[in-house]
Amino acid sequence: MQEELERNDGVYRMLVVDDRAAMREMLEGAFSSRGMQVQTAASGEEALACLSAQPFHVVITDLNMPGKGGLEVLRGVKASSPDTEVILITAYGSIEVAVEAMRLGAYDFITKPFKLSEVEHKVDRIIQKLDRGGPQKIQTWIHPGLRHFVGTSAHTRQLMKMIARVAPSNSSVLITGPSGVGKELVAHAIHEASPRRDRPFVALNCAALAPSVLESELFGHEKGAFTGADARKAGRFERAHTGTLFLDEVGEIEPSIQVKLLRALQEGEVERVGGTQTIPVNVRVVAATNRDLKEAIAQGRFREDFYYRLNVVSIDVLPLCERRDDIPVLIDHFLHKFSLEFAKEVYEVEDDVVGAFLNYTWPGNVRELENVIERAVLLAEGNRISISELPAEMLSLPENPLLESLSVDLDAPLMDRTGRLERELILGALEEFRWNKSKAADHLGLKRTTLQYKIRKYGLE
Predict the structure, then answer these.
(1) What pLDDT score does 95 carry?
(2) What is the pTM assigned to this prediction?
(3) Which of 30, 52, 59, 312 is the most exposed place for a label (fewest CB within 10 A)?
(4) 439 and 330 in one domain?
(5) By C-alpha distance, which of 246, 239, 235 is closest to 288?
(6) Ranges in the chain, pLDDT < 70
(7) Which residues contact 7 (CB under 8 A, 6 or more apart)?
(8) 422 CB neighbour count, 10 Å cutoff
(9) Cα atoms in the Cβ-side hemisphere of radius 13 Å centred on 83
């Protein structure tokens, strides 16, 4: 049974795994002096024995060691303590293995030769996350590979709680929100947290196909059903049998096909185009749209009965401009992703870049942020992204009204800006909940004691 990652006397625990004594001693000395409780292991086998005795908050392990290597240590960590963060040290040229490590749940990797400051920087980011309350634990199994669904805002935490509640059922789910916010990631998360996680996840973009092609894709067709139907073909419903069918841009489906979809959902069976045999299917349908389906119903473009069949549970994903607390975490995530992809070590952004990101309105949402980071990592000459790597259109827009209303001076140092923004957000939450500190703390994603400290710090008493 997994132990909780609690701190002993407020101290974070680290395990350093390396077959070279000099490396173990160097890392142990560096992080012990920073107040961490550090234990070392000279092999993968010794590390796994340490992990069976107690969990650690951070594990730093060499990738290539005699006997059990770093990947086996990583698997052991994630099996016994999924919340533990793992940093791998890899030799130059091991990028493919590093990609596999990230897929298995590693927090990050460092290539040799490296500076101690690089390791300290990555560990500091982990500690900052733990100080903010750490990963939000949910009572439903989440696949460790689902690390691209990230965020720390109150909205994202509530989103994950909703996913945890609805995932175990077979009920249909309708995901709404503008383009680029990550609706398909939510659909994947629902599938991965459900009892169907080991069964197929089949996705279909309903806006990309003509009605006749869409019908064939959904239900399949018999040989000779239409010109070009040279063989029988199973549809997406059949391919998703016992699993999950994700219908993206469901608002674009023609009413004539909506009728057939409604019957498939109600009866649990389909008929291939040109066929007469009914085929039973056990499919959970998750749909997504960026349209207002109630307005489409009023205009006669969407069937009301089909809407209510899809909308058993509704999940709305807010645009990025309304959950700015997610931006720093998303920046880190995409930096990791594209550093791996381009075999570069770009691990932070300069202060004025953070200011530009917070000031920008992000009309393309998370997808646009991902594209901007990809471009910046590709252009970066060092290990930091500077303002010169950002698209010109991001820098020529007027100031964001939200930040103007919070009186944040974007020319001020980053710490001053962050402090002023944090003070205004805390004051707004306290006023919204009539100074009920427990409710305000929950809304802000803070512990009540942390909120009380910040109230004193900013003179809000």
Answers:
(1) 57
(2) 0.60
(3) 52
(4) yes
(5) 246
(6) 1-10, 92-96, 98-99, 132-149, 396-419, 449
(7) 13, 57
(8) 15
(9) 18
Q: For residue 227, how many other CB atoms are within 10 A of its CB?
A: 6
pLDDT of residue 92: 54
Same domain assignment for residues 82 and 193: no
Decide which of 300, 316, 332 is a domain's last residue: 316
CA distance 253 to 286: 15
Q: Name residue 308's amino acid.
A: Y
What's the pLDDT at 116? 86
Query: In this structure, how many other beta carbons lie within 10 angstroms of the beta carbon of residue 172?
Result: 20
Look at residue 372 in the predicted model and tell me its pLDDT: 95
Work out the burial of residue 346: count CB atoms within 10 Å of its CB; fewer than 13 is exposed, 13-18 middle, 19 or more buried: buried
CB 216 within 8 A of CB 233: yes
Residue 140 included in any domain: no
What CA–CA distances, in Å, run from 302 to 17, 115, 280? 59, 59, 26
Q: Does residue 143 form part of some domain?
A: no
pLDDT at 392: 84
The domain in which residue 418 lies consists of 321-457
Quick one: pLDDT at residue 411? 52
Question: Considering the domain boundaries, does residue 7 fall inside one?
Answer: no
